[in-house]
Amino acid sequence: MCAAGTPGPEDLESAQFAEVLRRRAESLAQEQEEESQGDTLGLLLFRLAEEWYAFPVEGVREIHNEYKVTRIPRVPEHILGVINVRGEILSVMDLATLIGVPSRTVRDIGAELPSAIIVANEKCVSAVVVDEIGDIAEVQGDAVEPSLSTLDRARAEFIGGSVYLDNRLVGIVNLEKVLEPIGDTA
Q: What does DSSP assign to residue 122?
C-alpha cells in the first residue's frame, strides 16, 4: 500500500492512460480538421481550340476513341448525331459549338472525329467531342473560383467555375447544364 499523497502503480498507469487518450483525441481532431479543409475535386482536362476546360471526374464514364457517327436530321447544331457504344445509343455533342468556342472538330460525314468523352448524370448520357484530352488533375475545392464575368451570358451558363492549373485558366464545365435534355423545362 502506498502512503497518502504518493501515487501508486495504479495511479501512474491511470495518469499515463489518460495522457495517451488525450493525445489521441487531439490527433483525431486535427486529422478531422485537415480532412474538412482538404476537400479535393478531380478534373479531366480537355482542350477546345486553344482554351482548356475540365469535366468533374465523377461525371466522366469513359473515353471513346473509335466511333462512327450516324447523322440525325433536324437536331440542334451542337448535336453531331448518335453512336452505338456496346449496344447503348448515345448522342454525340460538339461542346465547342454549344458554348461558342471556335474548334477544329471535323463535321464532315465520314471524317474521322477526335476522341470523345462520355459523360453522364442521372438524367442523360452523352459523348462529347473535344480537340484534345489532357490529364486528370486534383484541385482543392477552395481553389475553384466562380466563372469569369467576362463570359457572355450564353456561354457562362455552361461554365460552372474556373481554376488555375499550370499557369493556365481552366473552365470547369457545368455538366448538369450541358446534359440537360433538349426541351427540358424543369
A: S
Length reported for the chain: 186
d(CA 9, CA 60): 61
Give pLDDT, residue 112: 65
Q: Which residue has the cell 487518450?
A: 21
Q: Are 92 and 79 in contact (CB under 8 A)?
A: yes
Q: Where are the beta strands (DSSP E) in the chain?
A: 40-48, 51-56, 60-64, 79-85, 88-94, 116-120, 125-129, 132-140, 159-165, 168-173
Cell numbers given for 99: 458554348
Which pLDDT value is given to residue 109? 46
- Spatial CA neighbour of 49 closest among 6, 11, 95: 95
The amino acid at residue 5 is G
What's this model's pTM, rounded to 2 decimal places?
Answer: 0.71
Q: What is the pLDDT of residues 64-93, one digit of tens each?
A: 888 889 999 999 988 999 999 999 999 999
Q: Classify domain 40-178 by CATH number.
A: 2.40.50.180
**Taking the domains of the chain in order of start, what are their residue ranges?**
1-37, 40-178
| Percent of the chain at pLDDT exceeding 90 | 31
- How do strand 88-94 and strand 125-129 relate by DSSP bridges? parallel
Q: Is the dihedral of CA 183, 122, 65, 90 positive or negative?
A: negative
